[in-house]
User: Which sequence fits this backbone?
């Protein structure tokens, strides 16, 4: 380690409290990308990030428009053309959060308790993206320069599957061009076991709606001769799975690349016991395709989940109607080489093939994302491993992630550079759930690891 | 017809406009009994009715407490003990209504258009109960007295299946005692075909909730090894019916009294064609147990409907969760001699028997109501038929109603008197639906018919 990174790390430790207060300011903005009512908050979050980057001396930082929510972009190119350029991708948007979901404190009023920051977006992804901003600041405020060039590409549509990301990258390919992309938007099992993800699942997200009568009907006056749309929906969705918990959609598994023995051995290093999984989730029993281990099921195998159901009356007490319609949101996590659009076509065809003529069924695509897979013996991945050893204090595992970050496959395809997923969250941070949280200690260790990683990357060309 | 009833009918015609304005005042009160937020509106509606009855000279009219929403009670006993007493039952409570459901005008701001009054409660049951109040007023304001004694028993919990009705009747049996009970809370097919209902279906209303993980889970991090509660719910509910559209709950049909050939002949008089049913409801095709005609299915056979479904995310866009829970409201319309509690036990046992061990399932009873059946050759029924002939201008049909009015079986059981169901609504009034409406002409013809019925009842003892 050099004096340069040592000074930066020291700075980051002495300014820890301020760094967190700044993160709180960002967490206070309810930048919920899934809800049109929060459009103004989205822009406010992007503007906050740009103002913050300008404050660090990134004079060309700017809010950049897309067809949807804007991108916050900033760059520091002071290391010069001889040094590598790292593109840091993150997202400032979050999923919805309401007190009624079970939050103990308001989701957009950050609270520090038991070494954790509680707030929607704390770990996914505001807290994690901010690590890189603070790492760069630590160099600039000590040496006045950093060992590599840094570009921040912070989008606002990750939680809605980044519909405008590909056009943005294509349009600004020169501006974004880099030698490696780093993303911190994933997690490790425990603080002692940092992980670098080399694989992510893709996604097909769709909506099914069943229509029956024109309006809700009085169930006493009309019930008995109308196919209740909620009944038709559950009859259809009740056929999504086979009795052995495999997905019943014809052709669904056709393009899945089988796991090799070596891969299964690697995955086994992070497998969970039934008890661990039950304790982490609270489920009464394990479920799924028993031909695969728990870790394989949740990271290396495709899924099909019902994310939401709605029909008729769900308020207190009885309401005696035959509802006019019923709907469901469905999403499938995909693995290589499943094509998200082909999977959508297969699910749509299957649902239409089992839909009865007594109702009208609509299937609509919401979003898709490709799966991604990188080798982990390349220099940029190995440099990351060294950064953890020096900056974090533990050797990382290379693992497969069960989630989907659409940008990963897109950046790899469009820019032809490796994407290194250095996640600083914990598996049980409760992202997308009530009481989302982020470890304060890991926030600060993440900053130090990011500082070292810049140095390691610079070393690849020294 | 006597001069007495002629004068009353004339009065009702000349005061028609005011009668409707008064009804509008009652319709403006959002007395939604299913929603605790409307408790104050419930009391306001009861107080409005009592004040109105007092204004007609019913000096003992009063708001009477129950364990739930209050009863509005009033009596006029000036006909004396030699004359029959008629108990008029009605309900001032309504089901929920929101603009978002598809109302063209605000549900609690009555609008008159195309000879109809549009408002929640217009036909169910504020408009219909008000007919009897205005019939009595028409006698009192002309002759100064009516041909029979009249008691108004107007409850506020019909739409939540009258949980406090039986205790109230038992406690006030002497006060309520009468020779016949009249209820206007039902409908006819067309204005030319008035109907007297001699049968109503009972009800068992329950809620099923499926619990999986403690909180909503990120579907990417955890999906694949947890039995998605929404999936478990649809798998369970998908087994409610057999392939021939009969209900799969073991024992469900055991106590159903078979329809006789004579009854089926009577029901056939009001049967609907496939086209008529499709046009009235908007469904693409008829559904149900093909061993029975449409009218039999919707009035004389038991049903099992899903009234509501909820789970996870139903807002705009995607949310990639495995929901913590999923739920449904279910209700069964029952016929003689099905026992509502036995049916609940059967449904609960069936659901529990098919629930997998990978989730926790809760089944909860919400309400029950008994089915009712009366002979239609008794004097009180025949007097009602004559009242329609003279007051309405058409001979009524005696029909079976598919809906449930819990009070009917209870009054019959507890007071040992016949209940005559003289409904002044139309089948397509849209009760419990958006844009509920009540025919203005039928409102006024109903008042005249009610006036004549009082005279016909008096004649039974003359």
Assistant:
């Amino acid at each position: 380690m050099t004096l340069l990174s040592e000074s930066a790390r020291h700075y980051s430790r002495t300014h820890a409290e301020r760094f967190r207060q700044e993160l709180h300011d960002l967490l206070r903005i309810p930048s919920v990308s899934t809800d049109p009512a929060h459009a103004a908050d989205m822009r406010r979050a992007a503007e906050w990030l740009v103002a913050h980057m300008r404050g660090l001396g990134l004079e060309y930082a700017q809010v950049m428009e897309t067809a949807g929510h804007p991108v916050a972009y900033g760059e520091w190119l002071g290391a010069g053309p001889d040094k590598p350029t790292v593109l840091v991708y993150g997202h400032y948007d979050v999923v919805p959060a309401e007190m009624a979901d079970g939050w103990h404190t308001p989701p957009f009023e950050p609270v520090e308790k038991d070494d954790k920051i509680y707030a929607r977006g704390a770990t996914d992804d505001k807290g994690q993206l901010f690590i890189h901003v603070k790492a760069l600041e630590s160099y600039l405020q000590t040496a006045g320069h950093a060992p590599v060039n840094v570009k921040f590409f912070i989008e606002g549509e990750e939680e809605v599957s980044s519909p405008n990301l590909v056009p943005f990258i294509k349009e600004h390919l020169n501006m974004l061009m880099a030698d490696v992309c780093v993303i911190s938007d994933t997690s490790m099992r425990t603080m002692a076991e940092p992980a670098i993800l080399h694989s992510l699942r893709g996604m097909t997200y769709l909506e099914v709606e069943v229509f029956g009568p024109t309006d809700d009907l009085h169930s006493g006056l009309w019930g008995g001769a109308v196919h209740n749309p909620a009944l038709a929906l559950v009859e259809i969705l009740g056929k999504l799975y086979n009795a052995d918990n495999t997905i019943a959609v014809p052709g669904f598994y056709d393009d899945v690349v089988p796991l090799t023995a070596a891969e299964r051995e690697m995955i086994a290093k992070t497998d969970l016991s039934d008890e661990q999984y039950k304790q982490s989730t609270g489920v009464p029993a394990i479920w799924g395709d028993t031909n695969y281990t728990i870790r394989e099921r949740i990271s290396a195998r495709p899924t099909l989940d019902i994310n939401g159901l709605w029909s008729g009356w769900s308020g207190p007490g009885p309401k005696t109607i035959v509802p006019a319609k019923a709907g469901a949101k469905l999403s499938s996590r995909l693995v290589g080489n499943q094509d998200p659009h082909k999977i959508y076509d297969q699910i749509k065809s299957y649902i239409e093939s089992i839909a009865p003529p007594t109702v009208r069924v609509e299937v609509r695509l919401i979003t898709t994302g490709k799966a991604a897979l990188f080798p982990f013996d390349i220099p940029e991945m190995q440099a990351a491993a060294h950064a953890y050893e020096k900056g974090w204090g533990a050797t990382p595992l290379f693992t497969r992630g069960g989630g989907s970050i659409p940008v990963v496959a897109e950046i790899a395809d469009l820019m032809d550079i490796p994407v290194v997923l250095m996640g600083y969250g914990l598996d049980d941070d409760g992202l997308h759930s009530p009481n989302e949280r982020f470890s304060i200690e890991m926030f600060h260790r993440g900053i130090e690891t990011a500082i070292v990683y810049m140095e390691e990357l610079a070393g690849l060309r020294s």
Q: What stands out?
A: The CA atoms of residues 236 and 351 of chain A lie 7 Å apart.
